[in-house]
Amino acid sequence: MYEKLVGITSSENVLVNEPLKNHTYTRLGGNADFFVTPETYKQVQEIVQLANKEDIKFTLLGNGSNLIVKDGGIRGIVMNLNKLTSINTEGTKIIAQSGARIIDVSRLALKKTLTGLEFACGIPGSVGGALYMNAGAYGGEIKDVLESTIVVDPQGNLLTLAADKLDLEYRSSNIPANGYIVLEATFSLKEGNYQEIKAVMDDLTFKRESKQPLEYPSCGSVFKRPPGYFAGKLIQDSGLQGQQIGGAQVSLKHAGFIVNKDEATAQEYIDLIRHVQATVKEKFGVQLEREVRIIGEDLQK
């Protein structure tokens, strides 16, 4: 399999038994059998087609910002698109490849005095990940500005889809259900005023840095906002702030975050998430739904 993957891309782009903790914001996770970083859309298509032909497990890994990889790692091929990072403008549109950071797209929008992406200035994910979960913050979401996307389907075909074909809703889309791999997104923005756009972005950046526990590795906001409530307040009111299992801790700065405070394992992180869910359910009757994805295999004992 190694030789076939190298044949599609190159030896620099295929790593064997690669620790996935090197590629996740939580700094958690076991190893990937094959970690592949294609450089072109055609290479992505060919890797998907190879996985199908060889009947080998295939997993797409974004930039790892909203993700927990289990301690046993991931079998088969893990594809990462962090080498597809170009961002270009055409009038009031921005065309960004999926491996680009959505933060960098918002910064280019500012530079070109385009308004609409200010909300994304503090979202740590990639463009592909932002579409995958219809990422949002401070009243804005990808759904508001996305015009279209180029994806690869599970058979390796290249498709161009309008935004309204993605079922974009609160922190969800049909991208995972359809097995799509996002390669590129086109955002439709409006001409704005540089100082006004910058003022909004500066304000949102300050709010994020003052409220979020950026000093420790974390997966970002762990839970979706339950209707009529705020997840962080429910967790705080349950007396869980500062609660720790192993090296994983409910953040003292923002209860909606769980941080890797002291070399936590993925299992400790997951156990703490479940403990938070059970406690909030018991105290308030509210079922917290995870926003963070959990993938991979348990550590074999």
Task: Name a few traits of the molecule.
Uridine Diphospho-n-acetylenolpyruvylglucosamine Reductase, domain 3; 3 domains; 5-stranded antiparallel sheet; 4-stranded mixed sheet; globular
Write up this protein:
- The chain has 3 domains: 2-80, Uridine Diphospho-n-acetylenolpyruvylglucosamine Reductase, domain 2 (2-Layer Sandwich); 87-197, Uridine Diphospho-n-acetylenolpyruvylglucosamine Reductase, domain 3 (2-Layer Sandwich), CATH 3.30.465.10; 212-295, Uridine Diphospho-n-acetylenolpyruvylglucosamine Reductase, domain 1 (Alpha-Beta Complex).
- The chain is 28% helix and 26% strand.
- The strands form 6 sheets. A 5-stranded antiparallel sheet has the order 6-7-13-11-12.
- The protein has helices at residues 2-8, 41-54, 102-111, 127-132, 175-178, 194-211, 231-237, 266-284, and strands at 14-19, 31-36, 58-61, 67-69, 74-80, 87-90, 93-97, 114-115, 136-137, 140-141, 146-152, 158-162, 181-188, 190-191, 218-221, 244-245, 248-250, 257-260, 293-295.
- It is of the alpha+beta class.
- The relative contact order is 0.14.
- The chain has 8 helices and 19 strands.
- This is UDP-N-acetylenolpyruvoylglucosamine reductase.
- The active site is at 171, 221 (proton donor), 291.
- Its main location: cytoplasm.
- Keywords: Cell cycle, Cell division, Cell shape, Cell wall biogenesis/degradation, Cytoplasm, FAD, Flavoprotein, NADP, Oxidoreductase, Peptidoglycan synthesis.
- Belongs to the MurB family.
